Design the sequence.
């Protein structure tokens, strides 16, 4: 298979891809954290494929939080691209935790 770039449109499944995301947590304890993320390569799943991610939100208000999460299955968005929905909570720190949800950046492959 030819090399596939981040802007290439592909019908079918691209075996070695990942997704990035830039998001913010929900407000907790009067502040938010930015969440910068890159997923694992695809993990085969009964509904197609999913991705694993873990990391830390950006340091804010004197602390940060860790997270470990799996995405939902691929969601085709047209033009041979797909995204994944995520919905998770960070670890508790400084007496609170944050909710994070949204979709990651599109990647090649419509499934």
Sequence:
């Amino acid at each position: 298979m030819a090399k596939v770039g981040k802007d290439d449109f592909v019908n079918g499944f691209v075996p070695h891809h990942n997704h990035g995301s830039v998001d913010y947590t929900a407000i907790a304890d009067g502040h938010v954290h930015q969440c910068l993320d890159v997923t694992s390569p695809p993990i085969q799943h009964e509904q197609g494929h999913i991705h694993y991610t873990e990391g830390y939100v950006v340091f804010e208000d004197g602390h940060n939080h860790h997270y470990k999460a799996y995405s939902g299955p691929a969601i085709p968005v047209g033009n041979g691209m797909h995204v994944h929905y995520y919905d998770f909570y960070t670890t508790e720190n400084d007496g609170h935790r944050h909710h994070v949800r949204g979709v990651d950046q599109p990647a090649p492959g419509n499934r």
Summary: DSSP finds no helices and ten strands in the chain.
